[in-house]
Write a structure and sequence with these properties.
The complex is a heterotrimer.
Chain A: H1 2-9, H2 11-44, H3 60-70, H4 81-97, E1 107-108, E2 119-120, H5 129-151, H6 154-185, H7 190-197, E3 200-203, E4 206-210, H8 213-216, H9 218-231, H10 243-246, H11 256-281, H12 297-322, H13 330-357, H14 365-383
Antiparallel strand pairs in A: 1-2, 3-4
Helix pairs in contact in A: 1-2, 2-3, 2-11, 2-12, 3-11, 4-5, 4-11, 5-6, 6-9, 6-13, 7-11, 9-13, 11-12, 13-14
Chain B: E1 2-6, E2 9-13, H1 19-25, E3 49-55, E4 62-64, E5 69-70, E6 81-83, H2 87-101, H3 118-126, E7 143-144, E8 149-151, H4 161-170, E9 175-178, E10 185-188, H5 201-205, E11 211-213, E12 226-231, E13 240-246, E14 249-255, H6 268-271, E15 287-288, E16 291-292, H7 295-311, E17 318-322, H8 328-341, E18 346-349, E19 359-361, E20 373-375, H9 383-393, E21 397-398, H10 400-408, E22 414-418, H11 428-434, E23 439-444, H12 449-453, E24 456-459, E25 468-471, E26 477-480, H13 493-500, H14 509-516
Parallel strand pairs in B: 1-6, 17-18, 17-22, 18-21, 22-23, 23-24
Antiparallel strand pairs in B: 1-2, 3-4, 3-5, 3-6, 7-8, 8-11, 9-10, 12-13, 13-14, 15-16, 15-24, 19-20, 25-26
Helix pairs in contact in B: 2-3, 8-9, 8-13, 8-14, 10-11
Chain C: H1 25-39, E1 64-66, H2 81-85, E2 91-97, E3 105-113, H3 122-126, E4 132-134, E5 149-150, H4 152-162
Antiparallel strand pairs in C: 1-4, 2-3, 3-5
The chains are: A mainly alpha, B alpha+beta, C alpha+beta.
């Protein structure tokens, strides 16, 4: 008992235990993500969704999982077997290590710990927090390419190529957007970025508004949100697995548990991404009235619940978007990245850099400038020729048909 | 020759031919029920009435006759003009059709004639859509007029074809029209049911569904039936017939008009003589010493049996018995196969089943020339053809009796015996004689004591599953088509003989016939009866 | 360009987008609104085994039944109209002489291969005695192919089960319609 207490009281010991707990929580959430994805898609399409396995279909994800176990695990004879097996494993590992840097609930003090000391509810507090997140996010594309390549089949191969180009393209605007936050907060550590937001803006003595980065950098948030969809290969940017064109994309040849690993990793990635978005732009565990001052277990639990609430809202948004928007065409996807998001990101970065140089990065000038930049881009876009979205450029000149 | 004008078109015909027949042969659409080219003319149905212009016997002028005249009863005279399309003729047709349908029960859904019923056809073409009849219809329940035939008087149009057939062709007079006017009906005389040997023809000539065949009753709707042209194998008359079949089964046989051989009729023996085709007793696989073998093994065994026997003394100890049930082409192929291995093999014309005497119709006739139909005593279709093939090939020959006598003395080491009869044919004598033959190849439809002791037993096909040519008693060679595929496991006899003869591909009777033409004079002109105009059958 | 027939092609111009619409954002928001609204709408799906759809009993073409006449005998007269018209050739009838004095012919065997059937309803239309009808039953289930070969007893039983809500169509048509007067009433009236 004492041993357990001492392990929990040390930062390293606690991190190990906490990581174990978190993996389990995340796996549980992932399974229910699948359930909710099916439920939400059903509701949006005026259906009921799964409702037969258990009350309201709540046991459904376990039935799905059992099905993954029982299906034939087929490895194509022409595939590169080592890589073929490695790819889903890599994907799954990468999806599960991303959340190590998330500051989950601020400081906590166990009753047996001396007064005034506390430990952080974070698996790893590292100096390069955001860079770690970017690196892990960038690595997932290796898993996709590996799986695609090892399948030795044409549709997975197309999916792999698409995935590579897409993730590479979108990492640039994502990086630019995150730089804006890094510049504005002067730190790469997520817990510090969160700490800066975990307060209220004051007007005189009255707390009027949480000082979240979202309010400071709304356009940056938009930029990061769009690229986050692309990074996690979610609709409307899931071109790597576009089933209408590529059968199943990079995981066409996968079955049973290997397919399950890809499937679950997608949701784990979403959770990580949602957590990062919540921490970077919405103050993580912060709400007006909740702050990091108290390290008691009760407050820590409250904070843990709050950040999960925010994550779940993001997850819901992910799914909501998926069943609302159709998929982009590939050239539109690339146009969006290189001709819109990259210039936008550069301008935002420049503006924040200028403000940081004069020390005014946390004032009303930041959002005002970002909105100005957005308006500018809209203006530029309005002056340019209208985008040709639906037709090929080399068709004969359109005969205009007027419809009533 | 006479020239008459029908509906404004000049038609040439023999003087004195019924105008109706001239018109129908020339392709005019004239309805009729009672006329039949094989029966006397009664002009009772009144459907074929026409308008006629002919020479007035007093003035010599051409005048239209004031009333309608039955065309079946009017002989064609040179220069006469007739019309079948005038309003008067049309009105007569409509009125007569209405009369025929007054008491008709309109039970086409359950009537076997539906689909080949002249009432249906004429009602569509010449009749009315509505009946004005409001009184209850006369109901006249069906009755059995013979052991094989049913009469539905409700549907009868009283054309009296059946009555005339029994009187004129069969000569047995079983049927008559009883009562008068609207009570008139067909019936058999009391105590004399319709049991003559040609009685099935009354069903064929009945234009409506009044006379129906008990054997075919409710078996098939006629529009499902596919028809193949064939020759009846039951006697040496060689009647031309149609085989009506569907779903791999024969359902009925019908006569095919052939003025040279059987005119419009066939006998009941032939009509119902196909039942053995679907017997479950048939040989269905080649048997080598009593054990089932594949066709490849069976044919190899046949060659192995033939080769050594053929080498000894040029094959003098080999005999091949060609059954008169075989087609000429099959006999030719088999003889060739055996002669190729044993050049001096004896060709034997097989067992000819015989009844006591020819049966002439009308009954009681003795002069063959006056007979309207003859059932021959020789109960096989192709004795003449097989004999002609044997003659053409030359070499040692024997009759079946000679063959048995020689076999008894132990002359033959190997005999290839073909059966193919619908009934048991191996007599005690026969099997005793053949027990002296050391090796036997038997080709037959049904198992027998011969096939049981044969070294190799090959299944044979019934005639509906084969094609070829029969030569009848008068030397008329008539080809017949295949109607059904052989039963599962069997091959057409000619097909495996074809393979044994070393020829490639599928057997077609024509291909073999071409090879035979130089040798067998009988096959040089095949007789296929010309198609007759509708109703003239 | 390509040598297609230009007149065969209907060219449609793209709608012009306003400056704000070119950012896609207003449409995305509108789309999200639409889907959100649908989330709270009434569901279309029926919970099948518990809830069943209200069929239009007279029109719906479901499983066949073989009607009984007023004496409880099979109404079919084995006229072979339905197997003749059937485009899927799924009806097998063996006809025989009926055991009843007032009827000529009846089906000894009557089988419908429900797996081959395409439910076109032509058998119903062609039947001269309204013996074969399509019911509004659509729960066509079975574990084997043999089970889906419905024989006469099963088809008659279907009539017993469904006659409650879909009685056999009017009495058998026995005569021709009476000639009508010249005022244009339908010939089929009063049947």
């Amino acid at each position: 008992m004492e041993l357990i207490k001492s392990i929990l009281a040390s930062q390293v010991g606690f991190s190990v235990v906490f990581a174990f707990v978190l993996v389990n929580i995340i796996m549980l959430v992932v399974t229910y993500c699948i359930y909710w994805e099916r439920k939400i898609s059903a509701w949006i399409q005026d259906r009921h969704g799964p409702n037969r396995v258990g009350p309201a279909g709540l046991i459904q994800p376990f039935a799905d999982g059992l099905k993954f176990f029982l299906k034939e695990d087929w490895i194509p004879p022409y595939s590169d077997k080592a890589l073929f097996v490695m790819a889903p494993v890599l994907m799954f590992i990468l999806a599960l290590i991303g959340f190590a840097i998330i500051p989950w609930a601020g400081p906590v003090r166990w009753p047996w710990m001396p007064e005034g000391t506390s430990i952080d509810t974070q698996v790893a507090s590292i100096d390069i927090g955001i860079l770690y997140f970017l690196a892990v996010g960038g690595l997932t594309v290796y898993a996709i390419v590996l799986g695609a390549w090892a399948s030795k089949s044409k549709f997975p191969f197309y999916g792999g190529i698409r995935g590579t180009a897409q993730v590479l393209s979108y990492e640039i605007p994502l990086g630019l957007g995150l730089f804006v936050i890094i510049l504005g907060n002067g730190s790469l550590r997520l817990e510090e970025i969160l700490g800066a937001q975990a307060r209220m803006w004051q007007l005189g003595d009255a707390s009027i508004w949480p000082a979240w980065n979202f309010f400071l950098h709304p356009v940056t948030f938009l930029l990061v949100l769009v690229t986050a969809f692309a990074e996690t290969n979610r609709l409307p940017f899931d071109l790597a697995e576009a089933e209408q064109e590529l059968v199943g994309g990079y995981h066409t040849e996968y079955s049973a548990l290997k397919f399950g690993a890809f499937y679950l990793a997608e949701y784990a990635n979403m959770i990580t991404m949602s957590a990062v978005l919540a921490v970077l732009f919405f103050g993580g565990w912060h709400l007006p009235g909740v702050n990091g001052d108290s390290a008691s277990i009760g407050w820590a639990l409250v904070r843990f619940v709050i950040i999960w609430a925010k994550i779940i809202l993001f997850l819901f948004f992910y799914m909501w978007i998926r069943w609302t928007l159709p998929r982009f065409r590939y050239d539109q996807l690339m146009h969006l990245a290189w001709l819109t998001l990259v210039p936008l990101g550069l301008l935002l970065l420049t503006w924040t850099a200028v403000l940081t140089l004069i020390g005014r990065q946390n004032t009303w000038l930041a959002p005002a400038g970002e909105i100005g930049i957005f308006a500018l881009l809209v203006l530029v876009g309005a002056l340019r020729a209208a985008p040709i979205t639906g037709r090929q450029r080399d068709l004969p000149a359109a005969r205009i048909v007027q419809f009533d | 020759m006479a020239m008459i004008i029908i509906n404004g078109r000049a038609v040439e015909c023999a003087e004195g031919t019924p105008v109706l027949k001239v018109a129908v042969d020339a392709g005019f659409d004239v309805p009729f029920y009672c006329f039949h080219p094989g029966l006397k003319i009664v002009a009772s149905c009144r459907l074929c009435l026409m308008e006629m212009r002919s020479k007035d016997p007093k003035t010599g002028e051409m005048v239209w006759s004031p009333r309608l005249i039955p065309s079946c009863q009017t002989p064609a005279r040179d220069g006469m003009e007739v019309r079948f399309d005038s309003p008067n003729v049309r009105q007569n047709q409509r009125a007569v059709m209405e009369d025929y349908l007054l008491n008709h029960p309109l039970d086409c859904p359950v009537c076997d004639q539906a689909g080949e019923c002249w009432l249906q056809d004429y009602s569509m073409k010449y009749g009315n859509a509505l009946s004005r009849m409001t009184e209850p219809k006369t109901v006249n329940p069906k009755k059995s007029v013979g052991s094989k035939t049913l009469l539905y008087q409700d549907r009868c149009v009283l054309c009296s074809r059946c009555v005339r057939f029994c009187r004129e062709v069969a000569g047995t007079n079983e049927l008559c029209v009883i009562r008068r006017s609207s009570y008139a009906e067909i019936d058999a005389f009391p105590g004399i049911p319709l049991e003559n040997k040609l009685q099935g023809n009354v069903v064929d000539i009945c234009p409506v569904g009044a006379l129906l065949d008990k054997d075919f009753l409710y078996k098939q709707r006629v529009w499902y039936l596919k028809t193949s042209k064939s020759i009846c194998p039951n006697c040496s008359t060689g009647c031309t017939i149609c085989i009506d079949h569907n779903n791999g089964r024969v359902w009925r046989l019908r006569p095919r008009t052939n003025r040279k051989v059987n005119t419009w009729w066939i006998c009941d023996e032939g009509r119902f003589g196909w039942k053995y085709v679907h017997s479950n007793q048939r040989l269905l696989a080649p048997m080598l010493k009593g054990a089932r073998v594949t066709w490849d093994a069976a044919l190899a065994a046949a060659q192995q049996l033939l080769a050594p026997a053929g080498k000894a003394q040029q094959g003098k100890g080999v005999a091949v018995v060609l059954s008169p049930m075989m087609a000429c082409e099959e006999a030719w192929l088999l003889a060739k196969v055996v002669r190729a291995a044993a050049p001096q093999a004896t060709l034997v014309t097989g067992f000819v089943p015989k009844a006591s005497a020819d049966e002439l119709f009308p009954v009681g006739l003795t002069d063959q020339a006056k007979a309207k139909f003859i059932i021959r005593a020789e109960k096989c279709p192709n004795r003449c053809g097989v004999e002609a093939v044997c003659k053409a090939l030359g070499g040692p020959q024997a009759t079946f009796a000679d063959f048995l006598a020689k076999a008894k003395q132990g002359t033959f080491a190997l005999a290839w015996i073909v059966g193919g009869y619908s009934q048991e044919w191996v007599t005690r004598d026969c099997s005793d004689a053949l027990s002296k033959v050391s090796q036997l190849i038997v080709q037959d439809i049904f198992p027998s004591s011969l096939s049981a002791r044969a070294d190799l037993a090959l299944p044979s096909c019934a005639w509906v599953e084969r094609e070829g040519t029969f030569v009848n008693h008068a030397g008329i060679a008539q080809p017949f088509d295949r109607a059904l595929p052989p039963p599962v496991g069997c091959q057409q006899d000619s097909q495996y003989l074809y393979r044994l003869a070393g020829m490639e591909g599928l057997y077609r009777a024509e291909k073999v016939r071409e090879q035979m033409l130089d040798k067998v004079a009988e096959l040089r002109d095949l007789w296929t009866p010309p198609a007759e105009a509708r109703g003239m059958h | 360009m390509a040598d297609w027939k230009d007149k065969d092609v209907l060219h449609v111009s793209e709608p012009k987008l306003t400056a704000l619409e070119r950012t896609y954002l207003p449409q995305v928001v509108a789309g999200l609104g639409t889907t959100l609204r649908h989330m709270f709408q009434k569901k279309f799906t029926l919970q099948y085994p518990e809830e069943k759809r209200q069929m239009r009993v007279q029109n719906y073409r479901g499983i066949h039944r073989l009607n009984r006449d007023d004496q409880g005998r099979v109404a079919c007269v084995a006229c072979f109209m339905c197997p003749s018209i059937c485009p899927a050739q799924c009806i097998y009838i063996v006809a025989g002489e009926s055991p009843w004095p007032d009827r000529e012919k009846y089906p000894v065997k009557f089988e419908i291969d429900e797996l081959r059937c395409i439910f076109c309803g032509m058998c119903e239309e062609v039947c001269p005695v309204d013996a074969i009808e399509l019911t509004s039953e659509y729960g066509l289930l079975g574990y084997t192919r043999e089970e889906m070969l419905f024989d006469k007893e099963k088809l008659l039983k279907l009539f017993d089960l469904t006659k409650g809500y879909k009685p056999r169509k009017g009495p058998k048509i026995t005569g021709y319609p009476k000639p009508t007067d010249q005022r244009g009433t339908s010939t089929h009236e009063g049947l």
